[in-house]
Each structure stands twice: as structure tokens, then as C-alpha cells.
Amino acid sequence: MTTWVPTPYEVVTRTVETHDSVTLTLRPVAESLPAFRPGQFAMLYAHGVGEVPISISAIPGDGTLVHTIRAVGAVSRTLHDAGPGTVIGVRGPFGTAWRLDDAEDLLVVAGGIGLAPLRPVLGHPAKRTVLIAGARSRQDLLYQDEIAQLSDVDVVLTVDHGDHDWHGRVGFVTEPLASIPLDPDRTTALLCGPEPMMRFCARTLLGRGLPAERIQVSLERNMQCGVGLCGHCQLGPLLLCRDGPVTGYPMAEPLLLAKEL
Amino acid sequence: MPTIAVWKFTSCDGCQLTLLDCEDELLPLTEHVHIAHFLEATSVSEPGPYDISIVEGSVTTPDETERIRWIREQSDVLVVVGACATSGGIQALRNFADVDEFRSIVYARPEHIATLGTSTAISAHVSVDHELRGCPIDKGQLLELLTALLAGRKPDLPDTSVCTDCKRRGLTCVLVAHGTPCLGPVTHAGCGALCPAVNRGCYGCFGPMNRPNVPALVPLLRRSGMGDDELHLVFRTFNADAEWT
Amino acid sequence: MNVVLDLDGLDALVRVLRRDGRVVVGPVLRDDAITLAELSSAAGLPSGWGVETGPGHYRVRRRADAAVFGHSAGPQSWKRFLHPPRRRLLSSDSSGLHPAEDDAPNYAFLGVRPCDLAAIAKLRQIVGGRAPFVVAAQCTEPGELCFCASMGCGPAAGAGYDIALTERIDSDGHRFLATSGTDEGAEVLARVPARPASPNDLALADQDVEAATRRMGRAMPELDLRDVLTANRDSAHWETVAERCLTCGNCTMVCPTCFCVSVEDTTDLDGNAERSQRWASCFEIDFSYLHGGAVRTSGAARYRQWMTHKLGTWHDQFGTSGCVGCGRCIAWCPAGIDITEEAAALATMMELGGERP
Amino acid sequence: MTHRANRTLQVAGLARVEGEGALHVRTVGGEVDRVELNIYEPPRFFEAFLRGRNFREPPDITARICGICPVAYQMSACQAIEDACGVEVGGQLRALRRLLYCGEWISSHTLHIYLLHAPDFLGFADGIAMAGAHRAIVERGLALKKAGNQIMDVIGGRAIHPVNVRVGGFYRVPTPDELRPLAKTLHQALYDALGTLEWVAGFDFPDLEVPHDLLALRDDEGYPLDRGAPHTSTGLTFPVADFSNHVVEHQVPHSTALHARLDDRTFLVGPLARYSLNSDRLSPVAREAAAAVGLGPVCRNPFRSIVVRAVEVVYAVEEALRIIDSYERPDSPWVEVDPRAGVGHGITEAPRGLLYHRYGLDAAGRILSADIVPPTSQNQSAIEADVAQVVRSHQHLDDHALQSLCERTIRNYDPCISCSAHFLDFTREST
Ligand SMILES: Cc1cc2nc3c(=O)[nH]c(=O)nc-3n(C[C@H](O)[C@H](O)[C@H](O)COP(=O)(O)OP(=O)(O)OC[C@H]3O[C@@H](n4cnc5c(N)ncnc54)[C@H](O)[C@@H]3O)c2cc1C
Ligand code: SF4
Ligand code: SF4
Ligand code: SF4
């Protein structure tokens, strides 16, 4: 039953990202967990409230863990509210990572909190990296300062609802995706966001000649154990905590098309 | 300390008694919450606002429609407990009959009695934050809800069938093995499968589960010997006004 | 090692296992069903009781003989002991996080049918835990709902037993051929009064088990069920099942291999927390809950998930089928939905070219 | 202190009673002009919707009249229907029913003694505040109450609205092994019950002797719980079937509960009546304990009802132990009851007093008429009379003190307003 026992980590910094999201840096209290790779996730336990899957959103390489958390329910809100000094239980690393080995050009498409698991990828050495990130509104866009400082990444930001302070694009991420310059022969696309968004983006990319094999998506299902024991994260043949969340599009496509799978 | 108020509407008192039936937990609980109003238990009655209001009973009088709005305004979290508060209770049988006739059967001078034509759930009048099912509610669920509210976690109140609890308890299905009619497959879990545990079919006192398939159960009830009359009555009892279909 | 035990020998077997500190669990008659409970002697076995089963139907009946293993799968399975309905995982208090102790006893299971033997292996592959000592009872009399033969899980006991018994009652008396499957099994058998088995004893046992195969009234379609289920993902057939399906979860709860659990967090008034797991069912709407709502809300989607996992995607996840052909889900589904019939209907549709809405 | 000749006392919501009621008292020229126990608990029309239901349903349905004494409803309902169908339930099944009823008495009386009534004597707003000063005592009360609930859990399946009661007996009867742990709990409970009696007997009791007729069951086999014939303090006795000829209900404008008169006189049911008519029937330990705290064979002071309740708890615990001790599991959990056309009567001693049920059935077992007379509506006139007497003799008190004395007077009866709010005027009945 030790698989169920989290390792204590302590919050060292808490950075407010948006009105409902924060980034926490966690430092091991004593023992530490093996290193995480981009795309993988941890199960974070808030004492007495519960445990939820949260992706790794940066890999500083100093043994700390970085997570960006959006408060949507009881557990995520408690984690969101955790200030420096709070001890959180962590299990992981779990799941599959983004496959970047043969990527020449990187196309990163994120919707909402979906940018969190893709953030570690932005530092990956690629010939060319394009980031298309969408959010509901300007207030929901994550990591805005950091993105502004990215020098070797082409950035396109878009929001569903613009306001007078917003001078960028308004609309869904599929629109810039249809028009940005893109070399289908050397691009690897990484998608994370709501399922319909990923489906539309993938369809656009397939239409532009990108082979399905070079599209990766990150899939979410209810997860309660992280280690293939609870059964909740099934999506067709996949146990997403083990066979996902990062999945190649050839595998994911039929699963995303089926209703209520 | 968070304040709790317990309110009674049209009901039998059984659900609020459940709180007093928490013999081992009652005194420790009062060290963590402050009871500001609970007519059955205390003469103290403090004005609002309240952090948590627990409401028992259904709305059956004009006065009660007013009172529930006031309570909602005064309460941060509103919890409704029991079949009366969640679905109108057994007194909602009047919703299917003529109240004037009911009134005159019971009272010689019905004009003195001010009642509405219907008995309705609290949620028909105001928004509700949590509900505990059952006629009466289950003590374990009540404690689960209170401790969850105090700890800020989501209470664990599954909305699946009684069967799931029945099987976890290791009971033998009375419908399959004895041919006893049982509403377990369509009834909301929470009691811990009390009736099958005494070789009795569930009679639905926790009301319908989330998305019950009553049309699929009816032929099975018939097969186990229920006639039209009984079938009609069995869904028209403690949760008559709930959405069984 | 092959020996023959009589009823006293069987009782001695129970005693030996108990003396070694094991909790012996076996079939008993309780509340008009054959359930599983701790045995203090072989006298607790349901001697002379059989069962009559059908879809959504189960009745115990008196047998003409005194067989103790003459009944097919009951409402409970060994899952209850290897993967209990509720189990504490961990507690958390101001002093830190504490794993729950593994307090599972050292079990000996008596009278494990071959289908259940296979189920124990499949379940343990996922949930782990200490291996029980297994005394299997080979099947000589399949029940009306059994189809273990077509799942490759019976009626002969496959691998994994310590001792396998084959019960026989004839003019030579009531006896059990006992075959050891492990050294531990042989060692236990050696301490039980028994006579050596003759070639005839072995031949009779083989013959009885062989006959059982031929008498099995049900079978899964002989197609690759993974293909059948994938091809039928959008089939309208799921709707017709959903009309009958109560989504009560009985099938998953009685299935000896269904392993899903939900995690519960509880807290006491002093701020101590506990995490535990309880059996979950893919028929619960909350099972697929994501922030904002559940993924599988319709009955059709939930039934599809269950059957597709059991017969199809289990192969992808664990390299084997999730079904052993015990027939429990057919008997204990109050609506009598028959997984073999539904699989056959889907297989026919696929052969007709797959059905698209 | 001024003695105002004209004054009005209003208690809008009576606390520490079951259900919702108010009190209205008016004195004019120093005379008590009006005392109204105003029951505003909304009516729930049980008798009306029982019509047309199946004869197996009243034990479950009428239990929901009152969450405090559901077993009483189940017992009276079963008895009335069995009477209509010509069946008598005896032997161990009857013993189990009595055991279940003991559970309810223990639990309900203890709730009243510790959490509702004792705070009046010791000057606390409630049992919880009282626990601040007397933690161990309140914990003893809660343990005792829990013992009663455990009996109902084990026999009835749950403490409030038990699921295991059916017309003819039970759905499942326990094995002797399942009762053994109860016996263990009850040995401790007996000790706690005796402690409770000693504790409450030491309270100060205002003087009040009530002149009302007393009405209770009396039974050859022991203190009355689950059966017996109605007896009065005037020496009258009558068969259960004659109940409604003697006890007549009528509606009063200020209340949703019906009032009742016994042969046109104000009367009293409940612990005082039961004890005064049956103190000779107590078990030895209970009788001795009552004598030891100075309770005579008759008690007519409602303030002392708390002592009588404590005696009854001792009795109920002892009786429960006796039943468990001689328990043998019956072959069948119930006796078959086939419907037949007719009328049946059932009467038992609820913790608060006589509870009468009467049903008319047709040959198919459909209920044609239902009539339920709960204890609190029988006691309403007596309660009002007592309040009037208390007001009369305590004119010197200020409003606040007088009002709280009036409330205490009401609480003496452990009135169950939930029970009393929904009943039928017998004379209007159409059968
Ligand atoms: C692989 C993976 C990575 C994730 N990474 C992040 C991240 O980096 N940042 C972030 O803010 N969120 C992330 N999420 C989503 C996050 O797990 C949910 O928002 C969270 O579980 C909600 O729990 P709650 O108790 O706050 O809310 P509630 O809505 O009350 O949820 C109750 C329970 O439902 C389940 N649940 C609800 N929503 C989800 C969900 N989306 N995914 C899985 N289970 C769910 C959980 O079991 C949870 O305990 C990720 C989810 C997955 C599966
Ligand atoms: S007895 Fe009732 S609740 Fe239990 S499994 Fe059978 S149908 Fe479901
Ligand atoms: S089994 Fe059904 S009727 Fe019985 S207590 Fe539970 S929900 Fe109520
Ligand atoms: S799916 Fe049905 S037949 Fe197969 S193992 Fe499970 S319960 Fe037995």
C-alpha cells in the first residue's frame, strides 16, 4: 500500500498567474521523488481535502517541482490557496511525456490551463518554435510576462472575448493555426486543451498536410490513483495515467470522435 | 467557530433527531460549531446570519414559503435534509389529490387550517447547496457532510443505486435470490442497504438515484409478484413527488 | 501428488490449514444463497445444496446427493477477500502521512472453481497482495449460466492452485481426488489422511471434467471480441441494452475481476484525515466525473464502457480478457442482461458489415 | 413587584419540544381568561391519504408521523391491522416487538430527561450548555440513549423509522448471537439508568397536584407497553374497541391538533398515568429503585414526571435484558396475515402515552378508513388546565419568570407536537 503514500513537499513560492491560477514551487521536506519529464503529472494531496492530478509546469532541475493550478473545485482551490510553508503530499512522476526526440520545428497549441503542461517544452532546442495559446479572456492568459520575454519563439495569443485593453487576436486557436507558416514535413505539433479544441486543431493540421503521427495530444480523464489501480481514467484501450496523458493522434483520434467514451 | 442553525418545516422531526442521535459526536461537535438556533434542542435562539443552516421538512403553508426565503438570505450554506425537504415527503401525496377534500377528512372545520395545495421541496423555493436524502437521513452521511463542510472538502455522497452498497456489504440480492420486489436498482444510495440486510426489498425511502431506469425495473417488480395497485403505490410513498422517471 | 480423500479427509484438510495459521474461507449456505465465509470445519460446507440459475434468477435447491461443491458461482466472489469492498489506504495528521497497515489475513480458499481460479490470477495481476493458498474444486457440473470453456478458464482447473479437488459420489462412496499443484500443496496434502490415487481415480476425474465441457450451455462468440467491440463503438445496439439496463452496478460488483475503486477522503473533528478506497462501478455517473460534469452519463455509454473493457480493452491494458465465464453478471443482473447474448448480437452486426448510426 | 391584573404572555416558538407550537396566555382582572397551546405545526393529512392504501403499509407510513416515537406507531398499526384480520402475534415474535419498544422507551425518555427536561431544573438553556457544567452526567445520558437506539438498530434495522417491522411480525429475526452484544451494553445501561433516577430525584419540584382522570393500559403480564386494556383512575375499564366511545376528539380554532375528552372530562395519559395505575406491575429492581427515591405508588405532580420517566427507563432496560435472556429464534420471522373485510383496533403505550389506531379494511386489504389518536392531543386539555393553574398560583412572578414556568409546565408532558398535528375528527368519519 506504499504506492498510495505521498511524499511530503513544502511550498516555497506561490506566484499568482491569473485571477484563479497560481504557480507553486515545491521543495522536498526530506526524501524527493524521481525527476519528472515535460508532459508528466503528479498526484497532489491537500491534507484532509483530497488528491488530484496536476501536470509539471516547469523543470528547474534543482529538485523542486513546479505546478500551475487553476482553482475549480475543493481540492484545486485548497492547493491554489496554499501559501509558502504549507506541506503538500506528492506522488509521481506519472504518465507519458511529450516526445520531442525527432522534432525539428515545434508547434505548441494550448487552450486555457492546457498551457501549463506545455510550458516546459518551450525551452526545448528546436529549429523553430511556434506557440499558439488561447484563453477565454485576457485575464485568463497564463505566463504573460514570461511569454513576452521568449526570444526564439513565435507567439500568437488569442482570446475568446476581447476587451478594449486587448490588442491581440480574438477568436479560437484554430484560426491562426490555419494561416501560420508551417512546414508539414518537419513540424511536430503538441496540443493541450479542451477535447473539442484539440480535435479541431488536429483536423486543421491534418488538412495542412501534417501527418497524424507527428501530432501529440494530452488527454484528461478522472484520475484517483495515478498508477492504473482505480480504473477511472480509461479511455478506450488506454489507462491514461499509464498510457497517457500524452498520446499520439493516430491512437487518440477515434477515441476523441466517439461520443461519451 | 462557524454557526449552525437547524430549522423545521413540515416534517416528523426524525431528521433533526438524527443530529441528537449522534451520541458519540454531539458534544465534540459543539466544540467546533456554535449552535445558534435549534428549537428542538435549545431555548437559545440567536439572530442570523448563519454559516450553515440545516433545513428539515417541506413547504406546505404560505408562511413557510416566506420563512424559507428569509433563511436562505441569512445562511451562507444551506443544507436540506430528508425526504420532506428534498422531495416534499409523504405529505406530498396531497399534490396528487384534492387538498380541500383531505382537509375536510381530517378536520371538522377546515376553514381554520391554512395550508397550500402542495407540499414541495425546499429547492422549489430557494437554491440549495447540499442535500441529504432519506426518510430519515443516515447518521453517517450527516456526519460526513458536517465534517466535510468544516474541513472544506467535498462531501462524499454518492448518487448511485442502493445495489452498490448492498453488494459492498456482501448481501445476497433479494430480488434475484428470493424473488422479493426491491427498488434498490433505482433508489439513491446512502442508507447502506438496510432493507436487503433484513431480507426485505428496498421501498425507496432515499428517493430516486441519479438517472434511474424505472421502466426497466417495472417488469421485474411485476415478475416478483407486484400487481398494478402495488406498483402504483410503491413509487407514491415517501418520495412521491421526486423524479422517478 | 495425487491422493483420494473422503469427507473426513476434507475436514482434516481444513484443520491442517487452520493449524498453519490460515483463515480458511469456503462456500456456505446463508440467506438462501451459497456465499463465502470463514469455515471452522468441512461441516460448514453446503452439503447437498445445489443452485438453479438463469438470467436475473438464482435459487438454491436440494440436491439428490450430498455433494459439497455441487453448485455454480454464487453472489460473492473471492474478490471480497483479495480486494475488500472498503480498505484504508493512509492516514494524515499533524505528525505526517502514515500508510495503512496491511492487515489482510493469510487466507486459504477452499472450493475455488476453475473460473474463479483464473479470476484470482487476473485480479492479483492488478491489485497485488499476498497470494492465498488455493484449494480448487474442478467443475463436473456446470451451471446454466457458465461459459468458462469458451473463455479458456475451465472446467478443468488451470494453473495457480496449490491443491485441486475433483468431487465424485458413486457406489464407491463420496470422495475427492486431490492433486497438488505446488510443493506447498503437496506438503499440506501429505499431512492429511488419504489413500493413494489409482489410475482409475484419475481417469474418472478426467472423464467427469471432460463431460462438463460438453454440457456447458453457453459460449462467447468465437470472434476476436476486441474487433467486435471496436467496430461497434457507435452501434445503435447499445441503446437497446440501455433500455433494459438498470445501471445499478450489480454486474460489476459481483464480477470476480472488476477491480475499480474510488478514493474517499474523510476527516474527523480534530483535523485528522483518512484516505480509503471502496469498490466503484463504471455504472456510477460520478465514475467519469471531470470538472464540470461526467463524461459518460447515458446508460448506453456506461454499459458500453463496462462490456468493452471487460471483453476488449482489458486485453490492451493487461494482456488478457477481463472475463472468465463464471456467469455471475448474468445471474445477478436483476434485469437478466446476458453478456454472451449481447456479445453475440454485436458479433452478428459486425459480420453484417458493422452497424453505423 | 407589581401584580398586573391584565397581562398577556406569548411564547412564539416553544423550545425543547418535538414539533412546533406556541403558547398564548391572557389574564383579565387577575383571573386567567385564556390559555391556548397553539399548535401551528402544519397538518400532514395522514388519515386522509391512508385511504386506498394497502393494509401492509401503515406500519411504514404511520411511522413517519413522528420521528421521535416511530416504533409506537408501528406497534399500534400492526396490532390494529392484525386485529382486523383476526390474527394474534404471540410468543417470541411478541417478545421481540416488546424488546424493540423498550429500545424506543429508553431512547425517547432519555432524550427528554437529559436534553429537554433536566436543563429546566438546573437552569440551563439546553443539554449542551448543561454539559459544560456536568459533562460526565450528560455523557451518561447520551450513552443510555445510545443503548436504546442500539436495540432499535439491531431489531428494527434502524433507530428512526425502523425497516424491519411488518404486519405479522418482522422481515428477519435476529439470531441469539446477534442479541448477545446488546445484553452487554444493557448491563451498563441498567447501571446508568439507576444513576439517572437518583440524579433526577434530587431536583427541586414545584408543587402541583393535578386532579385530571388518568388513563393508561393495564396488563396482567407486566408493566404496559405493547398491549393491555385501557383503565382509568376512576376505576373504569373498557375494551380497546370502545376507545372512541370514551375518548372523543374535537377541533379547537387555535390549533391544528385536535383536542380530546375522556367521557367529557379532562384527562391525562403518559408516564404519570401509566405509573399511577401500574406501579404494582414494575419489575423488582425498578420498584425498589422508585421506592428508594421516595416515589409513592401514585404520582400526580407533572413536574415529577421526570422521575417517573427515569423509573420507566430502569424498567425498560431490565425488561429488555429479560427478553434477550429468554430469547429463542422463532421458526418464521412473521405470521401470515391474510386480508379480510373488517375493522381493527390497536392500542399501545407510546413513551408519551396511549396511542390508538383504528383501520377499516375491505376484503382485498384496501384501507377504507383510518383513525389515529396520539397521546399529545389527548393531553392538550390537561396541559392547558395545568398552565392555567400554574398562572393562577404564581401571579406574583414577573412575566419572564411566569412565562418560563409555563413553558416548563408544558415540557413536563414531553409533548410531541409532530404527532399531534394531523388527526381526524372521529365523528366526521364516513364509514
Ligand atoms: C493528467 C492531468 C493533468 C492535469 N494537470 C492540471 C494542471 O496542471 N493544472 C490544473 O489546474 N489542472 C490540471 N488538471 C485538472 C485537475 O486535475 C482538476 O481540475 C482537478 O482534479 C479538479 O479537482 P477538484 O477537487 O478541485 O474539483 P472537483 O470538480 O470538485 O473534482 C472532484 C474530483 O473529480 C475528479 N476530477 C475533476 N476534474 C478532473 C479533471 N479535469 N481531470 C481529472 N480528474 C478530475 C478528481 O478526482 C477530483 O478529485 C489535470 C488533470 C489531469 C487528468
Ligand atoms: S437486494 Fe435490492 S438493492 Fe440489493 S442488489 Fe438486489 S436489487 Fe439491488
Ligand atoms: S433499502 Fe431503500 S427503503 Fe430501505 S432504508 Fe435503504 S433506501 Fe430506505
Ligand atoms: S464479466 Fe460476468 S461472466 Fe465474465 S467474469 Fe465477470 S461476472 Fe463472470
Secondary-structure blueprint:
The complex is a heterotetramer of chains A (261), B (245), C (357) and D (431).
Chain A: E1 7-16, E2 21-28, E3 41-46, E4 50-55, E5 65-70, H1 74-81, E6 87-94, E7 105-111, E8 128-135, H2 144-149, E9 153-159, E10 169-170, H3 174-179, E11 187-192, H4 195-207, E12 215-218, E13 234-235, E14 238-239, H5 240-243, E15 246-248, H6 249-257
Parallel strand pairs in A: 7-8, 7-11, 8-9, 9-10, 11-12
Antiparallel strand pairs in A: 1-2, 1-6, 2-5, 3-4, 3-6, 12-15, 13-14
Helix pairs in contact in A: 4-6
Chain B: E1 3-8, H1 14-20, H2 26-30, E2 34-38, E3 50-56, H3 62-74, E4 75-81, H4 82-87, H5 99-106, E5 130-132, H6 139-151, H7 162-168, H8 174-177, H9 194-197, H10 214-223, H11 228-234
Parallel strand pairs in B: 1-2, 1-3, 3-4, 4-5
Chain C: E1 2-6, H1 7-19, E2 23-30, E3 33-38, E4 49-54, E5 57-62, H2 79-82, E6 86-93, E7 96-99, E8 107-112, H3 114-127, E9 133-137, H4 148-151, E10 163-170, E11 173-180, H5 183-190, E12 195-196, H6 199-214, H7 225-231, H8 237-244, H9 250-254, E13 261-267, E14 273-279, E15 289-290, E16 293-294, H10 299-318, H11 328-331, H12 339-351
Parallel strand pairs in C: 2-8, 8-9, 9-10
Antiparallel strand pairs in C: 1-11, 1-12, 2-3, 4-5, 6-7, 6-14, 10-11, 13-14, 15-16
Helix pairs in contact in C: 7-10, 7-12, 8-10
The structure holds flavin-adenine dinucleotide and iron/sulfur cluster (3 copies).
How would you characterize this protein structure?
The complex is a heterotetramer of chains A (261), B (245), C (357) and D (431). Chain A has 2 domains: 7-94, Elongation Factor Tu (Ef-tu), domain 3; 105-255, Nucleotide-binding domain of ferredoxin-NADP reductase (FNR) module (Rossmann fold, 3-Layer(aba) Sandwich). Chain A has 6 helices and 15 strands. Chain A has helices at residues 74-81, 144-149, 174-179, 195-207, 240-243, 249-257; strands at 7-16, 21-28, 41-46, 50-55, 65-70, 87-94, 105-111, 128-135, 153-159, 169-170, 187-192, 215-218, 234-235, 238-239, 246-248. Chain A is globular and about 50 Å long. In chain B, helix 3 (62-74) links the parallel strand 3 (50-56) and strand 4. Chain B has helices at residues 14-20, 26-30, 62-74, 82-87, 99-106, 139-151, 162-168, 174-177, 194-197, 214-223, 228-234, and strands spanning 3-8, 34-38, 50-56, 75-81, 130-132. Chain B has 2 domains: 3-151, Rossmann fold (3-Layer(aba) Sandwich); 162-235, no CATH class. The radius of gyration of chain C is 22 Å and the shape is globular. In chain C, strand 6 and strand 7 (96-99) form a beta hairpin. Chain C has a domain at 2-87 and 100-213. In chain D, helix 5 crosses helix 6 and helix 6 (135-156) packs antiparallel against helix 7 (176-201). In chain D, the strands form 5 sheets. In chain D, strands 1-2-3 form a 3-stranded antiparallel sheet, with helices on one face. A 3-stranded mixed sheet of chain D has the order 7-6-10. Chain D is 44% helix and 17% strand. At the B-D interface, helix 1, helix 2, helix 5, helix 9 and helix 11 of B face helix 1, helix 4, helix 5 and helix 6 of D. The structure holds flavin-adenine dinucleotide and iron/sulfur cluster (3 copies). One iron/sulfur cluster sits between chains B (162-163, 166-167, 171, 173-175, 182, 184-185, 193, 196, 202) and C (248, 250, 334). One iron/sulfur cluster is lined by residues 162, 187, 191, 193-195, 202-206 of chain B.
